[in-house]
Write a structure and sequence with these properties.
With 234 residues, this protein is α/β, with parallel strands linked by helices. It has a single domain, classed as P-loop containing nucleotide triphosphate hydrolases (Rossmann fold, 3-Layer(aba) Sandwich). The chain is built from 7 helices and 10 strands. It is globular.
């Protein structure tokens, strides 16, 4: 890619993996983000808390290069992302960012294994390597028995854990998680958080997670509240 190279991505040094400077975003007359300044360093686990409608999803979309800010600068891996083309943003997302969505977003016509292989297929990775990598991920997390099943046959907790594993398939440096526990019960929420903590601790993946839980204890090492368009300490 033209503006973001593999060297800076794999060796960020003291730079933040994610840096936002005075980021603003409006939808019509509604100003959702009013000047966000935010840095996430390598291997951090960040929680962004806020009520529904506070702008958390918008902020995560900007961090994940799914949506541009109206004003301000976004930097990933020490390089500005503002001037990247759509193709460059797409490649960056595919190679280095994993996404976990609120409602799983698994493809119903694909098996669990095929869902995990999907981002690897989009990267052009050959079938054997896709199969091996997806199988090893399922084995690592003790979910090999689900490989041949379809999403509709899984519980909500199982589906969300498979969504997390799919986000790991491309060996991302960053995982962006948008309210990943909102569609599952308390027991599965705890399992999922332990799952993410393991990924952060043992795989050194940087995690930015949005949640409506303002006071729940999370395995994050930094917490923010998004309120009235600003990030503030809890």
């Amino acid at each position: 890619m033209k503006n973001i190279d593999t060297v800076s991505i794999n060796n960020p040094g003291d730079k933040g993996l994610i840096e936002l400077y005075n980021v603003q975003k409006s939808y019509g007359a509604n100003q959702v983000l009013r000047g966000i300044n935010f840095t996430v360093k390598d291997s951090e686990f960040i929680a962004i808390r806020g009520k529904s409608g506070a702008g958390k999803t918008t902020l995560l979309k900007i961090i994940g290069l799914l949506e541009p800010p109206d004003n301000g600068e976004v930097k990933l891996f020490g390089r500005t992302a503002n001037g990247l083309s759509d193709d460059e943003k797409s490649e960056l997302r595919l190679r280095y960012i994993g996404f976990i969505f609120q409602f799983f977003n698994l493809i119903p016509s694909l098996t669990v294994l095929e869902n995990i292989e999907l981002p690897l297929a989009l990267l052009g990775i050959n079938k054997k390597e896709r199969y091996d990598r997806a199988s090893k991920l399922l084995e690592y997390f003790g979910l090999t028995k689900l490989a041949g099943r379809f999403p509709e046959t899984l519980s909500g907790g199982e589906r969300q854990r498979i969504a997390v594993i799919r986000a790991l398939a491309n060996k991302p440096r960053i995982i962006v998680a948008d309210e990943p526990t909102s569609s599952i019960d308390d027991e599965n929420s705890e399992l999922l958080m332990n799952f993410l903590a393991d990924i952060n601790r043992n795989r050194k993946v940087t995690i930015v997670l949005a949640t409506t839980e303002l006071y729940e204890k999370l395995p994050s090492n930094k917490d923010y509240i998004l309120k009235e368009g600003h990030l503030v300490p809890p």
